[in-house]
Amino acid sequence: xxxxxxxxxxxxxxxxxxxxxxxxxxxxxxxxxxxxxxxxxxxxxxxxxxxxxxxxxxxxxxxxxxxxxxxxxxxxxxxxxxxxxxxxxxxxxxxxxxxxxxxxxxxxxxxxxxxxxxxxxx
Length: 122
Hints:
By secondary structure, the protein is mostly beta strands. Helices cover about 0% and strands about 50% of the residues. It has no helices and 11 strands. The protein has strands spanning about 5, 10-15, 20-25, 35-40, 45-50, 60, 70-75, 80-85, 90-100, 110, 115-120. The strands form 2 sheets. Strands 2, 4, 5, 6, 9, 10 and 11 form a 7-stranded mixed beta sheet that branches. The protein is globular and about 40 Å long.
């Protein structure tokens, strides 16, 4: 049974930083692309950032380019989302997702975590 468990969310002031983690189990982690999505209040879930299986390539949403980075530790079956220069509009529930291949759409990914709340105060 595949499980993705996010952690690290919380309340942060604008301009601050936060690092989210997503621990994966039940799948051959190093053979899966990993991504982060988010869903703000009253909004649809949207793509944030994705890493290929090796971590050699990264894909960003324009809204987070230069502020967010993704990294993965295949030995720990964990993917991280480092968020810097946070803005109130980054407030959302953040989800990690896994699939054999990287993509930018919600429907592309087979497996999802339960989400972790990030709130950025102004």
